């Protein structure tokens, strides 16, 4: 590949090179947040296009122009946002993280890759791995929660799923880690705004997932909108990514991010913005028209070097070669039936949805509903397709979605009678439907109340000042409670919610996120007891808005016994890692292979988990490390490893964590330099804390 890249490069004109560094759009732009200049004519030499269609023929026609009408016949790379599925839509990424099952996520991403590639897309702008701790920010739905390591594990899993071992295969695509970097730190949860990130926090919190994704082989990255500045940062894009981590693919800007350097007050005009971005190491311009319009002039004026242009083009071509685009520029034409909703893809969707769902509360074992004969299925999410898809749902359609009511009907056929009532809409202040809902509740043995957020309330440019559900939905719940029947609250949402008023009303709460096309039956299966829930939260549910930001791995306080809120609890309602099962898991004592270790030695920890209940189940063990005294203060604890295993009733399984002293006990400073200090550490599993002593 390197020889072919060099050969091609040696034959390219400056104009041809510059066009390789630009991405335009093609087809209908279905992202309302991205209103760019319409490109009337796509040059045959263009480097990349965002492809909004699912029709391979359209792609092939455009590609034909590139192959036959451009002088060198360099294929275009077609990109698209296939975030949690292309057409077979999976649960949102935040839900996927709660499955703690990277193998399953990898499989889902492989399905996305297959559907996308067969539809004419070579490259997805996914995974989104921005650590996020403010649930008001709508984009928390797109990532894997509040923990850096968790984001890193799922980043690697997605990269493997999208790219496979060889991304030139006809069912694989290139991945793109985004948004590099620190976009999740958006102040007050507002999108696109300033982010204040110290170098120490950059390394401790934001870089790790990217490092893990790059190690897993991610072909590309996307630079972020936020003012760190993400899209003009030499330190992050060149020194860290390329020089330190040795990444040899390319970075694409986020949509218009280069031009936005003007609004952020860095560059006075587009030309200046191009200099900042390009010299910082940003190879491809998505829709700013900064590189295509100004780069030639900038080379001539000596503001950017030819060597850097060559290096950037080399990176773009390298990825195109790795994708096999030169050998197979065209997409074989197939029917939608051949591509989408394959039985195996739908099975993965169901399994991932099931494992993403988190049983938050189950008072008096109201669930599973084994003996209820009359079930009222109520609420704005019960017969709703769109909102179950979530934001960035690719080419998903509401008609693809199995609605919650229908899932219930299939699951409980012959076992219970169902009655449906809307009750209220997601937010319109109209109580007209209440009476019908109350009537259904009076008739029923149990109310399954399906509340939640509209799909448009999370995702990009979808921040909310309050993470509570709209008052009308809370009122409906309150009125239903008065009927006196047990209430099972099923939540469909794209972020953690404020549930302190709904929690006392509900006998059980099942968080199903936005579960995608095939989440209804798994949800009903959990309610019926056919499926034992196993999801655990990857993001803290605050007690109330006022606690935001709240996350488990905060740094320590000088007065741990003081500094609490006067008006509310300082604890979250549901902490990171919370999630109930229908069985009980009893943890043995955590044992270490040695309690004292020296640098360079091996160390491992084990814990047995016994399923002491009557049902088979899946359990995830989270292994945390804490370092009580360190020359750079550490968080109260940090997740370093997790593992999920299935454990049959009565069975005992061993969970093992092979500790890498440098990686797991060590820490980095604000320059990314790694240290390992002698002293005491603790390994933590649930409420057990076991000491490790490290000596020189
Ligand atoms: C979003 C990106 C997305 C891009 C292309 C931007 O507005 O921030 O996440 O990949 O648009 O659609």
Notable traits:
696 residues, alpha/beta, 6-stranded mixed β-sheet, 5-stranded parallel β-sheet, globular, binds beta-D-glucopyranose
What class would the helix/strand composition place it in? alpha/beta
Bound molecules: beta-D-glucopyranose
Mass-distribution shape: globular
Order of strands, main sheet, comes to 9-14-13-12-10-11
**Mean pLDDT rating:** 97
Q: Uncertain runs with pLDDT below 50, 5 residues or more?
A: none
**Number of helical segments with 4 or more residues:** 20
| % residues in beta strands | 15-25%
Helix content class: 25-40%
Terminus-to-terminus distance:
46 Å
Specify the biggest β-sheet.
Answer: 6 strands, mixed
Description:
This protein has 696 residues and is an alpha/beta fold. The protein is 29% helix and 18% strand. The protein has 20 helices and 25 strands. The strands form six sheets. Strands 9-14-13-12-10-11 form a six-stranded mixed sheet, sandwiched between helices. A five-stranded parallel sheet has the order 4-3-2-1-8. The protein has a five-stranded mixed sheet with strand order 17-25-24-19-20. Strand 24 and strand 25 form a beta hairpin. Helix 6 runs parallel beside helix 7. The radius of gyration is 26 Å and the shape is globular. 56% of the residues are buried. The model has no long low-confidence stretch (mean pLDDT 97). The site of beta-D-glucopyranose has 9 residues, from loops.
């Amino acid at each position: 590949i390197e020889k072919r890249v060099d050969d091609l490069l040696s034959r390219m004109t400056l104009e041809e090179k510059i066009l390789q560094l630009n991405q335009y759009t093609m087809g209908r732009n279905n992202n309302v947040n991205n209103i760019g200049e319409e490109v009337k004519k796509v040059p045959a030499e263009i480097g990349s296009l965002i492809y909004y269609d699912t029709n391979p023929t359209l792609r092939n026609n455009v590609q034909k122009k590139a192959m036959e009408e451009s002088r060198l016949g360099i294929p275009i790379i077609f990109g698209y946002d296939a975030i949690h599925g292309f057409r077979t839509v999976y649960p949102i990424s935040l839900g996927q993280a709660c499955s703690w099952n990277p193998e399953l996520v990898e499989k889902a991403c492989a399905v996305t890759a297959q559907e996308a590639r067969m539809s004419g897309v070579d490259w997805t702008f996914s995974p989104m791995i921005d650590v996020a701790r403010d649930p008001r920010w709508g984009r928390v739905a797109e990532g894997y929660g509040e923990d850096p390591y968790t984001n890193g594990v799922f980043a690697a899993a997605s990269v493997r799923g999208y790219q496979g071992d060889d991304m030139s295969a006809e069912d694989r695509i290139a991945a793109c880690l985004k948004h590099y970097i620190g976009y999740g730190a958006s102040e007050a949860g507002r999108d696109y705004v300033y982010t204040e990130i110290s170098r120490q926090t950059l390394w401790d919190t934001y870089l790790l997932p990217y490092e893990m994704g790059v190690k897993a082989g991610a072909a590309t990255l996307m630079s972020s909108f936020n003012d760190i500045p993400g899209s003009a940062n030499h330190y992050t894009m060149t020194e860290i990514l390329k020089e330190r981590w040795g990444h040899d693919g390319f970075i694409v800007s986020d949509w218009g991010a280069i031009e936005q350097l003007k609004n952020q007050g860095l560059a006075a005009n587009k030309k200046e913005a191009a200099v900042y971005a390009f010299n910082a190491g940003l190879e491809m311009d998505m829709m700013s028209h900064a590189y295509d319009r100004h780069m030639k002039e900038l080379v001539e004026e000596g503001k950017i070097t030819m060597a850097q242009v060559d290096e950037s083009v080399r990176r773009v071509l390298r990825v195109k070669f790795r994708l096999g685009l030169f050998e197979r520029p065209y997409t074989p034409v197939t029917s939608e039936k051949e591509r989408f909703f394959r039985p195996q893809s739908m099975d993965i969707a169901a399994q991932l949805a099931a494992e993403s769902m988190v049983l938050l509360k189950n008072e008096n074992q109201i669930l599973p509903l084994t003996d209820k004969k009359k079930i009222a299925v109520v609420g704005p999410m019960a017969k709703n397709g769109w909102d179950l898809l979530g934001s960035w749902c690719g080419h998903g359609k509401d008609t693809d979605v199995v609605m919650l009511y229908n899932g219930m009907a299939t699951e409980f056929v012959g076992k219970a009678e169902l009655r449906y009532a809307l009750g209220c809409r997601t937010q319109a202040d109209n109580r007209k439907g209440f009476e019908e809902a109350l009537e259904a509740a009076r008739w029923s043995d149990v109310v399954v109340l399906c509340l939640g957020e509209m799909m448009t309330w999370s995702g990009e440019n979808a921040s909310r000042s309050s993470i509570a559900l709209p008052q009308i939905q809370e009122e409906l719940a309150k009125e239903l409670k008065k009927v006196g029947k047990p209430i099972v609250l099923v939540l469909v949402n794209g972020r953690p919610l404020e549930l302190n008023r709904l929690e006392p009303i509900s006998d059980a709460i099942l968080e199903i996120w936005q579960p995608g096309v095939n989440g209804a039956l798994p949800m009903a299966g959990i309610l019926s007891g056919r499926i034992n829930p196993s999801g655990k939260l990857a993001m803290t549910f605050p007690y109330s808005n006022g606690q935001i930001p709240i996350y488990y791995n905060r740094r320590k306080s000088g007065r741990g016994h003081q500094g609490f809120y006067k008006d509310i609890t300082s604890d979250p309602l549901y902490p990171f890692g919370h999630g109930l099962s229908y069985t009980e898991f009893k943890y043995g004592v955590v044992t270490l292979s040695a309690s004292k270790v020296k640098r360079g030695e091996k160390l491992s920890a084990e814990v047995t988990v016994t399923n002491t209940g009557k049902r088979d189940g899946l359990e995830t063990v989270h292994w945390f490390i804490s370092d009580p005294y360190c020359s750079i203060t550490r968080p109260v604890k940090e997740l370093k490893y997790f593992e999920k295993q299935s454990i049959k009733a009565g069975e005992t399984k061993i969970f093992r964590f092979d500790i890498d002293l440098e990686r797991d006990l060590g820490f980095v400073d604000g320059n990314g330099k790694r240290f390992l200090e002698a002293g005491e550490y603790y390994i933590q599993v649930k409420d057990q804390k076991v000491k490790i002593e490290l000596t020189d």
